[in-house]
Amino acid sequence: MNKVLLQGNLGKNPELTTLPSGMTKCTFSMATTERRGKDKENITEWHYVIAWGKQAEVCAEYLCKGSSVLVDGRLRTRNYEDNSGVKRYVTEIHTNEVTFLDKKKEV
């Protein structure tokens, strides 16, 4: 089983891309913080998240830097070669569902 459940906040505005196939992709970074008690330092981790299709379009329209979300997804690892020719690995979360946790603002 490959399942990830994360709750956190976006670190920057999401980016929407349309691939040559016509499929839409929304990427965003999110931070999760592990609270370790009053005498210990909290641990913050950064995650790279990708949503696809209609979900990508909704995320791009309604999320922004600082938005609070719950992400249900799966881990994917890809590799690429950097400018120096070194092989690098990136672990991403591909979403199954994104739940917006911010309360609606009153007008």
Describe this structure in words.
- With 107 residues, the chain is mainly β.
- It has a single domain (4-100), classed as Nucleic acid-binding proteins (OB fold (Dihydrolipoamide Acetyltransferase, E2P)), CATH 2.40.50.140.
- The protein is built from one helix and six strands.
- The protein has one helix at residues 53-62, and strands at 4-10, 15-18, 24-34, 43-52, 68-81, 87-100.
- Strands 1-3-4-6-5 form a five-stranded mixed beta barrel.
- A hairpin with an 8-residue loop joins strand 3 and strand 4.
- The N and C termini lie far apart (44 Å).
Write a brief structural summary.
The chain is mainly beta and 107 residues long. It is 9% helix and 56% strand. It has one domain: Beta Barrel (OB fold (Dihydrolipoamide Acetyltransferase, E2P)), CATH 2.40.50.
Structural class call reads mainly beta
User: Looking across the biggest beta sheet, what order are the strands in?
Assistant: 1-3-4-6-5
**What is the CATH C-level name?**
Mainly Beta
DSSP E strands, number: 6
Unreliable sequence segments: none
Annotated CATH architecture: Beta Barrel
CATH-assigned fold name: OB fold (Dihydrolipoamide Acetyltransferase, E2P)
- Tally of DSSP helical segments: 1
Average pLDDT: 94
The biggest beta sheet reads: 5 strands, mixed, barrel
